[in-house]
Amino acid sequence: MATFIIYSPGALQPYGHAFDYVGGLGSGLCGQGHQVHVVTHDGPLVLSDVTVHTATSAAWDRLLDVLPSRLRRHAFRLLAEPRLLSTLSRLRTEHPDAPVLFETFEYLSLARYLRRHNGGCTGGIFHSTTFRSEREGVLRTAYKRVSARAARRIARSLAVVYVHGPHLRRRLLDELSLPETSPVRVLAYGAPDPAEVVVPTRETAREALGLPAGKNILLSLGTLRRDKDLSTPVRAVAASPDWVLVHAGPEGDASYRELEQLGEANGLGDRLVIHKRFIPAVEHSLYFGAADLVSAFYDPAMTHESGTAKRVRAFSRPLLAAGPPDLLDYVTEWGVGYTVPPHDVDAAAEALRRHAGLSPEDAAALEQRIHRAGQELSWRAVAATVAADLCPDDTT
């Protein structure tokens, strides 16, 4: 069996996708007998199964606390990433034959690093695929456009580049002017195997979370962001008296107050419930267990994957989705829920009505499809693909 190194600056942070992603992929690799080292910034979360290596903090890191949260994260990545890459260099000296997977990265720093340290088998995941066409905020847009050349250098330096959907692959090739023959591959976005997950009954989960027992629940789980369509699910639930919308997760570039104002404007009252905190993975079974449907409403132009939309299959709950083509194709091809056109409130309300009225036979068939997707797209299966690509001589 092999030793793998996963580089993921945000793997211990209570926001974003990295903790769940690295935890799942790392456990999948360890479950196949591999040893996994994770290089990451220090943070409040704890990864199991893997060995964690963090960079030494600098005294000036604390000076960034005066900045707004989003600007602080950008500044920290730019300033601290070279330090973390030095930690990676030391670890690669100890394990010179270990393949390295760059799960997330700051483009400018990694491009410089790969110019000097481009030996061994390396892979990288491009969770975001826009550079020249980025339009999300002034700072992010400027950064992504400046980083396009560095991103192209990274993609050309790695043995394999992963994206999470065919449309994302096409966009990355176009954005970075990469040839069709580039080793850019579609990798499934993993989730726990349903056979390994214990889901409480709806009644038990709702009692534990203080949620209403007599209504259907549409769950929105994750960070509030502007590339998520908050308005359509709010208005669809407003038109569906038997449904409650529950949002659980931290603020991002959208605020709790914005969501509350949407609820007030549409007369939701107590049928909008907001749990204002980061929801750790150990509590996901409660939230998914309490839900009847899970909301996945996104801007159709979104250029990254939805981790929540993939994780929910581990808990045998269906999706109600609108947004980018890769997400809609996933729901349709695997038969794991309902898709509606973007911003179509009537279609979303009709999907809520249809789901509430499913016969026991149709509900059981839907759950079986979700279970099959969960098994075939589990972290174990994703880890096997990564191991075969990066270390084919050490896979079984």
Structure description:
By secondary structure, the chain is α/β, with parallel strands linked by helices. The protein folds into two domains: 3-190 and 379-394, Rossmann fold (3-Layer(aba) Sandwich), CATH 3.40.50; 194-376, Rossmann fold (3-Layer(aba) Sandwich). It is built from 14 helices and 13 strands. It has helices spanning 18-31, 69-94, 107-116, 138-157, 166-175, 202-209, 231-238, 256-265, 284-290, 307-311, 325-334, 345-356, 360-376, 379-390, and strands at residues 3-7, 35-40, 51-54, 100-102, 122-125, 160-163, 184-186, 216-221, 243-248, 272-275, 293-297, 319-322, 337-339. α4 (138-157) links the parallel β5 (122-125) and β6. α3 (107-116) runs parallel beside α4. The model has no long low-confidence stretch (mean pLDDT 91).
A few lines on this structure:
This is Glycosyltransferase involved in cell wall biosynthesis. This protein has 396 residues and is of the alpha/beta class.
Quick tags:
single chain; 396 residues; alpha/beta; Rossmann fold; 2 domains; seven-stranded parallel sheet; six-stranded parallel sheet; 43% helix; glycosyltransferase; Glycosyltransferase involved in cell wall biosynthesis
